[in-house]
Write a structure and sequence with these properties.
CATH architecture of the largest domain: 6 Propeller
Strand content: 25-35%
Number of domains: 2
CATH topology of the largest domain: Neuraminidase
Oligomer: single chain
Largest sheet: 4 strands, antiparallel
Structural class: alpha+beta
Number of strands: 20
Strand order of the largest sheet: 1-20-19-18
Distance between the termini: 155 Å
Helix content: 25-40%
CATH class of the largest domain: Mainly Beta
Shape: elongated
Length: about 400
């Protein structure tokens, strides 16, 4: 009886031990499986990292190859450009030779044709002058006779900059454009506000969407006209009150060399006179001589262009007064500025008889000189100083 009771007790115990052993074996198998999976994931991650390193190395090799080929292309481009330049030189020489041989083999018939051509050319030039007089106000009959005095209004800002009034508006606002590259205009209520010591606190700041280049910008009838920084010859028309760009244009031939040798940051110098908006620049094709262009400020279209005899060498600035260009020259180290080249677009003035005009009582240089036709004064920027020059004018002869 006792044996039966012990058997009855041992059977559940043994079953419990066997069940526990079975569970332990299952757990061990599960852990072994999980361990194998982790090892597999680690191997895949290692392979992925190695693939990434291989890709990075391949990309570096590819970048080096591309840069090397680009350098080769640049060299090839320079060689092609040199060959094209040489070809153009040879073509120009051949053209001159053809012109020369044509001139020495000229016949009487050719002379008669040439005379007809001369007559036709003179007729066309006379008609062109009539059109120009109609386009430009012929009643603008005064010219510069001298610079009477100067007034240094303030000294603020960088060595280069410009300041001005709007001759097309009745208000007395002053505009300051500091630096040869910037995109912020300071607008002052009047000259007294500008002359205050803490003037920048009283100024209205106008931020442009594109910065300007040089100091040759002008403000006329509520619009700022300026050469866009980074462009060859793009002129922007910006509405100051609405703060948006209303128009733009490309000025043919401009922007490749400075308008004035002593003001290298200014490639295009815009000017205002009694006739409206002008552009002043220099071109390599003219041997560095200054070119002036009349621009319609409403449509931003070129109306006419003149090649002048005024050279940009040793020039520091220029301005327009009543259809006449006045070019200001100086010494590279600075000195007394002087006007010694004048060009009348209508040919009504014998500019060779005009004496050299000196700027009074000042040694230095100008980065900007702009004429204000409303006040008959020059607004200049000289070595960080804002200057006003009063003018003496006379009737054109």
């Amino acid at each position: 009886m006792l044996v039966l009771q012990l058997q009855f007790l041992l059977v559940p115990f043994l079953i419990s031990i066997m069940g526990t052993a079975q569970y332990t074996m299952q757990d061990a198998a599960l852990m072994n499986y999980i361990d194998r999976r982790f090892l597999s994931l680690e191997k895949r991650l290692e392979k992925c990292n190695q693939d990434i390193l291989d890709y990075v190395e391949e990309f570096r090799d590819f970048s080096k190859m591309v840069l090397s080929r680009l350098a080769g292309l640049n060299n090839y481009k320079a060689e092609v450009k040199s060959e094209v330049d040489n070809l153009l030189t040879r073509i120009e020489r051949a053209q001159r030779d053809i012109d020369y041989f044509g001139s020495i083999t000229d016949s009487n018939t050719c002379v008669e044709v040439h005379e007809d051509l001369v007559k036709q050319q003179l007729f066309e030039e006379a008609e062109e002058k009539k059109k120009l007089k109609l386009m430009l106000n012929a009643s603008c009959d005064h010219m510069l006779a001298g610079i009477k005095s100067l007034k240094i209004v303030k000294k603020t800002g960088d060595k280069h900059g410009s300041w001005m009034k709007d001759p097309g508006k009745k208000h007395a606002k002053i505009y300051l454009l500091n630096g040869s590259v910037n995109n912020v205009i300071l607008e002052f209520a009047n000259l007294l506000t500008f002359m205050e010591s803490n003037h920048t606190l009283r100024a209205r700041r106008v931020t442009l969407p594109f910065p300007w280049e040089g100091t040759g910008h002008v403000i006329y009838q509520g619009f700022l006209f300026y050469h866009r920084y980074g462009s060859l010859n793009e002129i922007i028309k910006f509405n100051i009150q609405k703060r948006n760009v209303t128009d733009q244009m490309l000025l043919p031939g401009a922007g490749r060399i400075p308008a004035y040798q002593l003001s290298p940051s200014t490639k295009i110098d815009l000017a205002i006179d009694e006739q409206g908006l002008w552009a002043i620049h220099a071109e390599p094709e003219t041997g560095g001589n200054i070119v002036i262009t009349k621009i319609n400020h409403l449509t931003m279209a070129v109306e006419h262009t003149w090649d002048t005899s005024c050279n940009s060498k040793d020039a520091e600035a220029a301005f327009m007064v009543c259809n006449i260009l006045y070019v200001v020259y100086n010494f590279p180290s600075g000195g007394t500025s002087r006007i010694q080249c004048v060009y009348d677009v209508l040919g009504a003035v014998n500019t060779y008889e005009i004496p050299v005009l000196h700027f009074p009582k000042r040694q230095g240089s100008h980065s900007t000189i702009h004429y204000n036709p409303k006040e008959k004064q020059l607004f200049a920027w000289g070595d960080g100083s804002q200057i006003v020059y009063k003018l003496h004018t006379k009737q054109k002869a």
